[in-house]
Amino acid sequence: MKQQTFSDIEYSGRKRKTKRETFLDIMNEIIPWEEWVAHITPHYPDGKRGRPPKGIERMLRMYLLQAWFTLSDEGVEEAIYDSYAMRKFMGVDFINEQVPDATTLLHFRRLMEENKLGERLFKVLKDALERSGHIMHGGTIVDATLIEAPSSTKNEAKARDPEMHQTKKGNQWHFGMKVHIGVDAGTGYVVNVEGTSANVHDVTVAPKLIREDDEVVYGDSGYLGLDKREEIVSDQHLARIHYCINRRPGTLRKKTDNGGQNWERLIERRKSSVRCKVEHPFRFIKIQCGFRKTVYRGISKNLSRLYMLFASANLWMCALAGRTLEPIRG
Hints:
Blueprint: H1 6-11, H2 19-30, H3 33-40, H4 56-68, H5 73-82, H6 84-90, H7 102-114, H8 117-131, E1 139-148, E2 165-169, E3 172-184, E4 190-197, H9 202-209, E5 216-219, H10 230-233, H11 236-240, E6 242-245, H12 261-275, H13 279-288, H14 299-320, H15 326-329
Parallel strand pairs: 1-5, 5-6
Antiparallel strand pairs: 1-3, 2-3, 3-4
Helix pairs in contact: 2-6, 3-8, 4-7, 5-6, 5-7, 8-14, 13-14
């Protein structure tokens, strides 16, 4: 057992924990640290040359804090010094050591991006959830959300991000990228993630989000006509899937000759009751973690962070559901 510091003893006398500390305690318990560290180790400096590197788990913890609270490299360093909850999550004892500086975190973040380790850790966790029976099969919910990007040209290049584009949603124009996800229809865990520019239509990315054993696919009215696309019709597996897509709300206002309007509305509500599971991961990344705008230039860098956020969303939902943790690590 780790020896308590004076700060730990002082803070143990508080009447209540903050929401931040509660969140970090839960994530500290549920994240499979050993498995994630093992996948990063082959790409991490071995320390035979130059200054000895910081521990992988410590840098991974700092990287996750940056993603969860949408902080800059310098911002997360200062936040750890300032916040007891973050320092406790990092496991830093100021008597013997200091927080890794912003430059060290920058190098670790680039290592994660260049080797696509965020995507790898997301898939490792998804495979573990499938082996332990947490993820069901047979149905997928597809959806997409816009992530705004800065449209200002007040930068060195005097131009907007070339990988981002604009699109019109409703009567408003948006500039940025779009995140497409496939969610297990039974449990709500994210199983597939794709990133594109904002002007790419949801229907064109949907086939990449469908799993090999799916029998039904749910989606909102933006996916109408998905079953008639060439890539769907020409594929033997995709053509057999039942596409349960919500109709546009305006079409339900029309009266029917047989008085079946209420029945049609009931069917749409049933579709929506299943499809609403896709909103929980989006809420985690956009509301709880504050990832509403891109933090880097280019889609790949932002997608690297999104993979880690969606992996965290799966773990967070697993913890809230009271799932057993040992099968995941096993």
